[in-house]
Amino acid sequence: MTDRETTATPPAAPGDAAPRTALVFPGQGAQKAGMGEAWRDAASWAVVAEISEYTGIDVEELLLKADDETLRRTDLAQIAVFTVEVLAHREAAAAGLLGGVVACAGHSLGEYTALHAAGAVPLADTARLVAARGRAMRACAERSPGTMAAVVRLGPETVETLVARVQEEGGRGEGGRVWIANVNAPGAIVLSGTAEAVDRLAELAVESEGKVIRLAVGGAFHSPLMAAAADELRAALAAVDFAPGHTPVVANVDARPYASGEHWRDLELNQLTSPVRWEESVRTLAGELGCVRFVELGPGRQLTGMIRRIADGALTVPVESAAALAKLTTPEP
């Protein structure tokens, strides 16, 4: 624990002003085998059956019995992570941990949970959208194979230069198809592209004293290779009625807060083929929106680590299990 991470944040007493709080939700990659066990005895566990009914997927099986290999499948991973996030959000709200919420944000898939938590989309519609998104992305990745990779020890300007060089060398062929997919935190950039193009950039990164690490993902997400997935998701988004007004959600594609449902169909379509601007999003939450407390709801602590690198002095509150929540809401003796 550091001075910026809390392990004991009791609910505010009546009349107390809660700190300006952002709710944040991780994306695909946070999943792990057995992650539902952490919430199995929670009062909100019944939501697992609800989401199974809405999507036609046995979500309880995924959360309790699926192995890591099964959970690498894009469509299954996304609905599993989404469900755990909904569980964490419901339990944290019931425990009184979510006072002072002024905005929400989610990383990639997590943006859908953020929209639900913000009151923009009801649970049934959000679950169906997540399922449709996962299916579309998986099908697209099978038609247009690709990969993702993390770049370490290089700044954004250098990475942009290397990406431009690979694109120029490879032209329109497989060797030139690489893009920046995520800007997560200082020194944390992720690429998407064909295997050939990512391998070439890895060679150039070594020359610049950097390193490229392949990620175990099912496709080149957040890049133009996902264009077909956007086409498939469009119909699912058109069938959803977004609330005309809701708690602000900071969008991945431009790091701007939106509090009106009219924008989200276009934003979510663009998100599939555009970089996730997470570092900028956190700066918007901490700066423009004045958030001093960040509650991460879902499996793991991926976003907590990023936020602590971006927003100096931010109070980070990871809620990855019922046990962690109990510690957070039990006053110290």
TrEMBL record:
Entry annotated with the keyword Chloroplast: no
* Pfam families named in the record: Acyl_transf_1 (PF00698)
Any idea of its EC number?
2.3.1.39
Q: Which reaction does it catalyse?
A: holo-[ACP] + malonyl-CoA = malonyl-[ACP] + CoA
Q: What class of enzyme is it?
A: transferase
Bias class Low complexity marks the residues at: 7-21
Supply the InterPro entries for this chain: Ac_transferase_dom_sf, Acyl_transferase_dom, Acyl_Trfase/lysoPLipase, Mal-CoA-ACP_Trans/PKS_FabD, Malonyl_CoA-ACP_transAc, Malonyl_transacylase_ACP-bd
The text of the family note is:
Belongs to the fabD family.
UniProt protein name = Malonyl CoA-acyl carrier protein transacylase
Q: What organism, scientifically named, is this protein from?
A: Streptomyces rugosispiralis
